[in-house]
Amino acid sequence: MDNTPKKYFVEQGSIVREIWSKADNILFVFAGSAAEFALNKAVDWLYFTGNLPADPLGRLFSTVAYGRMIIFSEYDGALAAIDKINAIHHGVEKARGAQIPDWAYRDVIYMLIDYSIRSFELLERPLSDEEKEDVFDVFYRMGLRMGLKDMPYNYKEWLISRVDHLREHLVQSHYTLDLFKQYKKHLGTVRYQLLKQVQLLIVPDEAKRLLPIDRLSYLSPVISFYKLTRLVGLHGLLKEAILPPAYKSQIREMDVW
């Protein structure tokens, strides 16, 4: 019998596991990312395959699946998931005959760091400096495995680099407006309004000012109520009321690992 302790890419006590073990946290991560992807100067790469505008929710759940494989799998399985992501991207580059800019890859890693922290702090509690460093370290190592260059070495350096990326790599374009049209088409009017309200709460100011959304926020009191429903075990009912019926089973699976 092999008693060798299992090795994980993300240790079992990591705050990243806690963040990514709850569906509402993950959904808030991707609400923020949906906004920022729409503004990124490299968003044309997401349009090259047509997958994102054609099925933004399907793309969300595909990305979530890879993220959870990396975070919850044993070490070799996590590396295999990262390598598969790399292979998919390299296939797109080959098909287009160009390379995705290194800064665009870093932007995605930065989103995962930032929105993991923002979603947890919005829905749960403030994170300690050590916990934020833990979040940074997980996605930093993911970036290294992907072969990314010029990654900051710690959370404090990342904070500076993150602001630079937000200022240099975001712009409202026709892709921005089209993606938001697709979000509305696939979510429906009510859920689309909810998405924009979440984005108002979670997206950095540098990105928020470029978004095609209203600035009137009414979701903060709802978030307070939502936290209360968690305590009494009713948050699942509220969650199902605001999600497309076709994806309810996949949402429930995010809460179970």
Automatic annotation (TrEMBL):
InterPro entries in alphabetical order: MPAB/Lcp_cat_dom
Gene Ontology MF terms: oxidoreductase activity
Domain ER-bound oxygenase mpaB/mpaB'/Rubber oxygenase catalytic: 27-211
Pfam families recorded: MPAB_Lcp_cat
Listed name of the protein: ER-bound oxygenase mpaB/mpaB'/Rubber oxygenase catalytic domain-containing protein
Species of origin: Mucilaginibacter pedocola
